[in-house]
């Protein structure tokens, strides 16, 4: 059995090569207009934060991703360092006991669980991913199945599937792939094989309450409802983001992976995981969320929340009953987001977390007609991201593409755009 050293004892959380146990946490407010991760100028001056997140490869130096927007009167300014710190506090707030991060081998999953009927059988978009034709590909493909322990408890056992080509002794770029709602890591295999054929180490995980972390067709639905009623977990997005932090700890220790060239991408729910995972953890150096980035607050304010709510409707129906409402309305929606993912519709929403990715290369790919990720809701995140990347002299590293005429589905065009983006920014040698 592989055993990774205990990187995460409770009082010594190691993130990006920097211990933060000695840092006194700032007083936290509820996420909203008074949240300390948002600042409106004036005031004229704010003290530098004591915590500086750094990448594993640049310990002792300020990470390039730690970009702050310039102060302009009346502008809402995102302090990326502070946002990451506070996001981390939210993630830690509903954790079970922290335990050593261990790795154990697993067997391939022969019959992966899909929480949808009928079970999906084919993805034209994934099958279209550019792939190098290699003779005897199957015999040259290396497959690893393993479990990471990310915290105590059943859901703290993270199933991981890794594909790469045998024979290379050089450190290679890696990409983490994240599946959509009700699917699993095995569903992503066409993408994993395509990227492996092109020299990447391709990694997929089961998100919380999915795949090997689910026991039946309603596991994810039941977890969402339980979170609403008990406020004990965060199955919608945030708990899996915690797993992604722990996954980065493991990947940066592998001898076959270049720790400065780890990308992350995903579809729909997986796109949200990729977006938030990169926002909180700068070790994800290239980011491509597909049909995932949206404005949760914007949707509430502009009455465009229905399609997103419909994707996990039993949760909102339960909340409607508990709140004594005759129908699901925006008050129900806001209360649900605040309870199951604190800050999702306020201080951790896209206008703040998207700019926090700068200056790391970020490609956002959506459908122009996607009702779950309304394009109009991305105008503010886009403008703030452009400002942040501009201040970092990295405007070429941010791009938002909305494919005309496409709703909430991943297309071959999106897969190709993501492939080109990763080749451009991950295939280049580390500085």
Automatic annotation (TrEMBL):
<protein>
    <recommendedName>
        <fullName>AB hydrolase-1 domain-containing protein</fullName>
    </recommendedName>
</protein>
<dbReference type="Pfam" id="PF12697">
    <property type="entry name" value="Abhydrolase_6"/>
</dbReference>
<dbReference type="InterPro" id="IPR000073">
    <property type="entry name" value="AB_hydrolase_1"/>
</dbReference>
<feature type="signal peptide">
    <location>
        <begin position="1"/>
        <end position="17"/>
    </location>
</feature>
<keyword id="KW-0732">Signal</keyword>
<feature type="domain" description="AB hydrolase-1">
    <location>
        <begin position="175"/>
        <end position="412"/>
    </location>
</feature>
């Amino acid at each position: 059995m592989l055993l990774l050293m205990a990187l995460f004892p409770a009082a010594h959380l190691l993130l990006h090569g920097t211990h933060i146990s000695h840092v006194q946490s700032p007083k936290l407010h509820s996420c909203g207009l008074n949240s300390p991760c948002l600042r409106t100028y004036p005031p004229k001056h704010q003290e530098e934060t004591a915590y500086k997140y750094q990448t594993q490869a640049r310990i002792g130096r300020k990470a390039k991703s730690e970009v702050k927007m310039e102060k302009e009167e009346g502008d809402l300014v995102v302090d990326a360092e502070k946002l990451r710190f506070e996001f981390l506090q939210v993630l830690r707030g509903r954790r079970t006991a922290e335990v050593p991060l261990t790795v154990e081998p697993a067997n391939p999953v022969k019959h992966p669980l899909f929480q949808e009927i009928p079970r999906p059988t084919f993805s034209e978009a994934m099958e279209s991913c550019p792939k190098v034709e290699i003779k005897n590909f199957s015999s040259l493909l290396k497959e690893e199945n393993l479990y990471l322990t990310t915290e105590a408890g059943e859901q703290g056992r993270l199933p991981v599937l890794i594909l790469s080509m045998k024979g290379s002794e050089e450190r290679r770029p890696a990409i983490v792939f994240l599946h959509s709602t009700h699917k699993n890591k095995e569903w992503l295999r066409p993408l994993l094989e395509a990227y492996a054929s092109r020299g990447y180490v391709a990694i997929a995980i089961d998100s919380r309450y999915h795949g090997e972390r689910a026991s039946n067709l309603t596991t994810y639905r039941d977890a969402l409802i339980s979170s609403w009623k008990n406020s004990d977990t965060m199955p919608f997005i945030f708990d899996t983001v915690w797993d992604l932090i722990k996954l980065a700890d493991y990947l940066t220790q592998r001898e076959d992976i270049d720790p400065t060239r780890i990308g992350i991408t995903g579809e729909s729910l997986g796109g949200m995981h990729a977006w938030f995972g990169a926002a909180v953890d700068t070790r994800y150096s290239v980011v491509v969320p597909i049909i995932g980035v949206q404005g949760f607050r914007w949707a509430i304010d502009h009455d465009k929340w229905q399609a997103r709510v419909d994707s996990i409707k039993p949760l909102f129906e339960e909340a409607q009953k508990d709140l004594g409402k005759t129908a699901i309305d925006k008050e129900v929606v806001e209360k649900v987001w605040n309870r199951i993912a604190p800050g999702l519709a306020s201080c951790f929403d896209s206008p703040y977390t998207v700019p926090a990715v700068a200056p790391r290369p970020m490609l956002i790919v959506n459908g122009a007609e996607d009702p779950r990720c309304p394009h109009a809701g991305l105008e503010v995140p886009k403008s703030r991201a452009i400002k942040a990347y501009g201040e970092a002299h990295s405007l070429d590293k941010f791009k938002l593409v909305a494919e005309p005429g496409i709703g909430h589905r991943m297309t071959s065009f999106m897969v190709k755009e993501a492939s080109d983006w990763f080749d451009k920014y991950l295939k280049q040698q580390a500085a």
